[in-house]
Amino acid sequence: MSETDSFIDEVTEEVRRDKLFAVFRKYGWIGIAAVILIVGGAAWVEWQKVRTRTSAEAFGDAVMAALDSDDPAARVAALDAVAAAGPGDAAVRTALTQFLAADEALRGGDRAGALARLETLAAEPALPDDYRQLARLKAVILAGPSMAAAERDAALAELAQPGAPFRALAMEQQAIALMADGRTDEAIALARQVLQEPDATPGLQRRVTQLIVALGGDPDAG
Questions:
Q1: Residue 15 binned pLDDT confidence (cut-offs 50, 70, 90)
Q2: Structural domains of the chain, count
């Protein structure tokens, strides 16, 4: 290669380098900004995870502390005082404490107080539908014979709709209500349907089987 060719190559390389630096000076901030956004976004996501975990742990500790008393009334009061941290899940956390408070109120003999809490939860629009339906089912079971038959039947019919989260449990209660009304054959037929429900747990299947046998039916028939 001649000295002239070498010189031309060096000049060409210098020109390319100058152009590259010019482009970097003009648009380099975009790459820097992208790196900052990526790093900042990753840091924010990790912070959110830590915050959520810390909040959940604090909530769990508060609930465990509230249940530490030997007095049911004190446990109910402590559960009522548990703060639900975080606006996004405040309704759900409050619901969890109120379910526990209802159980503790019932253990302490306050049946009316427990029922009132469940009915309040069942009517709370801010709660997910499955929470409301669980509260409604527990309220129907707790109310027992004190609930008007028409109101009980309407509530259970709604809870036993296809696709409802607690359909099998509601059907069990419908069968029990039919038994209480002396409609034995209908109770047995409905109990057999419960056995065919895909969501029926082993415990529920055992209870329904015992109900069928107690009514003089055959769980395997029909």
A1: low
A2: 2
